[in-house]
UniProtKB/TrEMBL annotation:
<feature type="active site" description="Phosphoserine intermediate">
    <location>
        <position position="694"/>
    </location>
</feature>
<dbReference type="InterPro" id="IPR050512">
    <property type="entry name" value="Sulf_AdTrans/APS_kinase"/>
</dbReference>
<feature type="binding site">
    <location>
        <begin position="620"/>
        <end position="627"/>
    </location>
    <ligand>
        <name>ATP</name>
    </ligand>
</feature>
<comment type="similarity">
    <text>Belongs to the APS kinase family.</text>
</comment>
<dbReference type="InterPro" id="IPR017850">
    <property type="entry name" value="Alkaline_phosphatase_core_sf"/>
</dbReference>
<dbReference type="GO" id="GO:0005737">
    <property type="term" value="C:cytoplasm"/>
</dbReference>
<keyword id="KW-0597">Phosphoprotein</keyword>
<dbReference type="InterPro" id="IPR002591">
    <property type="entry name" value="Phosphodiest/P_Trfase"/>
</dbReference>
<dbReference type="InterPro" id="IPR002891">
    <property type="entry name" value="APS"/>
</dbReference>
<dbReference type="GO" id="GO:0004781">
    <property type="term" value="F:sulfate adenylyltransferase (ATP) activity"/>
</dbReference>
<dbReference type="Pfam" id="PF01583">
    <property type="entry name" value="APS_kinase"/>
</dbReference>
<keyword id="KW-0067">ATP-binding</keyword>
<keyword id="KW-0418">Kinase</keyword>
<protein>
    <recommendedName>
        <fullName>Adenylyl-sulfate kinase</fullName>
        <ecNumber>2.7.1.25</ecNumber>
    </recommendedName>
</protein>
<comment type="function">
    <text>Catalyzes the synthesis of activated sulfate.</text>
</comment>
<keyword id="KW-0547">Nucleotide-binding</keyword>
<dbReference type="GO" id="GO:0005524">
    <property type="term" value="F:ATP binding"/>
</dbReference>
Length: 777
């Protein structure tokens, strides 16, 4: 059990920026990633600050907490509402559990923490605090200590403003003061659990996203603010370094975000639309833009109305529930379904279908406490905000109806866990925001309170069926290769499923066995181990890994007992266990020793019955160079005597999917067919190259799950360069309006968060790209 746990929250930090775009310029975060566990953290429904942070620290979902955003309808009133605050939280958070167990806590800026409530330690409230003239610390005397340290403490900045220069100045001042206070508290007092949330990352993204994002409709090249977000993240990374130093070397550190961010496409006027559809009736036309509360609504003829925000909340006017309800209770479900279908059919200003999602709260949550809406609507998968005001004269706004805003929230946040006792460099797949609470309590050696949900995000707790998966490090080194961690002498090895070799939990200091080369191995979590001449087999039902007696270079074979052979593939210095991008050698029985689907072997070595060849999935924008690289790679591999097939996305579409168009669902179906065909060829020993745009991350993850030797190759190229190249003339057609669904322009491309290989065709020639790809096959 560690002495201390520190949680650093970066509000709204998206994986794209932290894990990829800015990573090379964030040395402190990069070190935590390279030596720790990291991956995307799926946020909650809705991905909004206050409910998301509380889900993270209580392990309850928003329905259980009764938190559906910042504002909430009060009872079934047409006008009255309430704002979420610390008093709204009834479930115990991790610091409550720790405090009751006698552990001291230190909390700064964790939403919502105003009004201040007592804790077993010290607390500074969050961004919803009205000002320093109100009690904002516990104990109360701490406020004077803070004032002496930094002057006037800052909780937030006005970020919906056109004065960007003043905003930047205020943002840096706030951030400097807040981090300084946190460093002071970490180094100046006793604590076992500390949590800090910086709201500035959210604020700078809302205010400056369009200056960075070339795909944003408001982007203008050459702005002096183009690097504002990048520079701020670099500054925050330096401040995080100060927290790490103040916390001490023996502290377990988590860096997390409550949700992600992406560019806003606009706002859809939900109440204007409801008026148009006959659901909302006004007694008189509005004069100018106005909030619905200020207008004369004819409630006796209104069936439904909506609230604006990051998502739309729809309320029905139900007889017996609302004061002037008109919908009979027996008709409620039918009315919900009819309106749901109408909302799903809403199109964007160009007439293209939106990827809108409509949810019923009771379908999302284990309970629906408090004041939930009747429907929750994510327009175009949250790319479009909901505007609740009326009087705009249309349904679509280019921006937010409450002030300047460039970004919206996204589902994926970040998760990094660094433990000084276990240097890893592993990516976790499948982590969710409510998993953080039980993970923190496990690190502290404390039991979970009744009702807490979530899973422990530690490798030793993977059971094969809980949805979590750990992969050997996906961080690319300077050459673009996957940088895999070494099995340090005297440390603990790892299996391919991510379980520690060691104790049942993977997080105590029990001794582990050592193979002939001094590489540490032991039983995987919840399993046993078998040993044959330095080759260890984890027998836990999901992890089949082998620590060779001799650490081998890439492609070499590690001999195993019983006449078989096991390719303990090592990238560079050598790796204990299996690498997903390695090569497997033959054994005398004709099989190939490999983790994965296996049959029993008298020697104790797991060997699958088939021989799978690699599947290289080339993803990127049209014109990036996917097909060119696939063809040249195929020529190279065939010259080596390997069997190779290219499944070109366009050719396969013409042959197998001529009936499919280019909607999201149709693109997904086309990719599923490619996955199936690639799997057939791979199982028969054919190396498969699949150059296809494949714009959606979840489909590429499906390919990874279904193809045993999947290698994701991100062929990176800027949109501007792809437009310049335009080998098929698609961009010209799209810009003329002849194509309405071209990826990168009208449809999104979800960039890979963790590819096995990244090649940048703007900066590398073809030979360099091929050389880089060849290193992993």
């Amino acid at each position: 059990m560690p002495d201390k746990v520190l949680v650093v929250g970066l509000d709204s930090a998206p994986p794209r920026l932290v894990f990829r775009d800015f990573k090379a310029e964030l040395p402190n975060i990069s070190r935590l990633m390279d030596e720790g566990i990291w991956g995307e953290l799926t946020s909650t429904h809705p991905p909004i600050t206050i409910p998301a942070w509380q889900v993270m620290f209580t392990g309850r979902d928003p329905g259980e907490l009764g938190l559906y955003g910042f504002r909430h309808r009060k009872g079934f009133s047409y006008h009255d509402g309430w704002i979420a605050s610390a008093n709204s939280i009834k479930a115990p958070a991790v610091w409550d559990v720790a405090g009751r167990a006698g552990r001291r806590v230190c909390l700064v800026g964790v939403p919502p923490s105003y009004p201040v409530r007592p804790v077993n330690g010290r607390l500074v409230s969050c961004f919803i605090t009205p000002g320093v003239d109100r009690p904002y610390t516990y104990p109360r005397a701490l406020a004077g200590e803070i004032e002496a340290l930094v002057g006037e403490y800052m909780f937030d900045v006005p970020f919906r403003t056109e004065d960007r220069d003043a905003l930047l100045e205020n943002l840096y001042t706030m951030t400097e003061r807040r981090f300084k206070v946190m460093r002071h508290l970490l180094s100046g007092g006793a604590w076992e659990l500390a949590a800090f949330v910086e709201i500035g990352t959210d604020r700078i993204q809302h205010a400056f996203w369009k200056y960075m994002d070339r795909g944003h409709h408001g982007y203008r090249p050459g702005s002096k603010y183009e690097n504002a977000i990048r520079d701020y993240y670099r500054y925050v990374d330096g401040q995080i370094g100060g927290l790490l130093e103040a916390a001490g070397r023996d502290t377990v550190v988590l860096v997390v975000s409550d949700h992600g961010a992406k560019g806003m496409r606009g706002a859809f006027c939900i109440n204007e639309w409801l008026i148009k559809e006959g659901y909302l009736v006004l007694k008189e036309e509005p004069i100018g833009v106005s909030n619905l509360d200020r207008l004369a609504v004819d409630w006796s003829r209104t069936r439904a109305w909506g609230w604006g925000g990051y998502y739309a909340r729809i309320f029905f006017n139900l007889r017996g529930r609302e004061a002037q309800g008109v919908i009979e209770p027996d008709d409620f479900e039918r009315e919900r379904e009819v309106l749901t279908q109408k909302l799903l059919s809403v199109r964007d200003p160009a007439g293209r279908p939106m990827e809108t999602k409509v949810y019923r709260p009771e379908e999302l949550y284990r309970e629906t406490n408090g004041d939930p809406p009747d429907l929750m609507v994510y327009f175009d998968d949250l790319y479009w905000r909901s505007a609740g005001t009326v009087g705009h004269g249309g349904l679509y706004l280019a921006g937010n109806d409450t002030g300047p805003d460039d970004a919206v929230h996204d589902y994926k946040g970040i998760f990094i866990l660094w433990d000084p006792r276990h240097k890893q460099g592993r990516r976790v797949v499948g982590a969710e925001i409510r998993d953080v609470a039980p993970t923190v309590l496990e690190l502290l050696g404390l039991p979970e309170p009744a009702g807490m949900g979530g899973r422990v995000i530690l490798p030793g707790f993977v059971d094969g069926g809980n949805g979590l998966r750990f992969e050997d490090c996906c961080a690319s080194d300077a050459d673009g290769r996957v940088a895999l961690p070494d099995c340090a002498e005297g440390g603990k090895g790892r299996g391919d499923a991510g379980a520690y070799y060691g104790d049942a939990t993977g997080y105590d200091d029990a001794e582990s066995s050592t193979g002939a080369a001094g590489v540490s191995c032991g039983p995987a979590a919840g399993g046993t181990e078998r040993e044959d001449d330095g080759c260890r087999q984890a027998d836990d039902g999901f992890s089949a890994a082998c620590c060779s007696g001799t650490v081998k270079e890439t492609g070499d074979l590690a001999p195993c007992a019983g006449g078989g052979s096991f390719a303990a593939v090592a990238h560079r210095q050598g790796l204990c266990g299996e690498s997903r991008s390695g090569d497997w050698g033959d054994n005398p029985s004709g099989g190939v020793c490999s983790p994965g689907v296996s049959v029993d072997n008298p020697s104790g070595v797991v060997c699958p019955t088939d021989v799978s060849a690699p599947v290289l999935w080339f993803t990127g924008l049209s014109g990036a160079g996917k097909s060119t690289l696939a063809q040249m790679l195929a020529d190279t591999l065939r010259a080596q005597g390997r069997r190779v097939e290219i499944l070109d996305g366009d050719e396969v579409r013409a042959a197998l999917s001529p009936e499919l168009g280019y909607s999201k669902n149709e693109r997904e179906e086309h990719n599923r067919r490619l996955i199936y065909l690639a799997g057939l060829l791979s199982r028969h020993g054919v190396t498969v190259l699949v150059p296809v745009i494949s714009p959606y991350r979840h489909i590429r993850e499906l390919a990874r799950d279904r193809l045993p030797r999947f290698v994701e190759v991100w062929v990176k190229c800027s949109l501007n360069e792809c437009i310049r190249r335009d080998p098929k003339g698609l961009y010209k057609k799209a810009l003329r309006g002849e194509i309405t669904d071209l990826t990168g322009l009208q449809d999104p491309y979800e960039e890979p968060g963790c590819p096995e290989v990244l090649v940048d065709t703007e900066r590398m020639d073809v030979e360099e790209c091929i050389e880089r790809i060849m290193r992993v096959i």
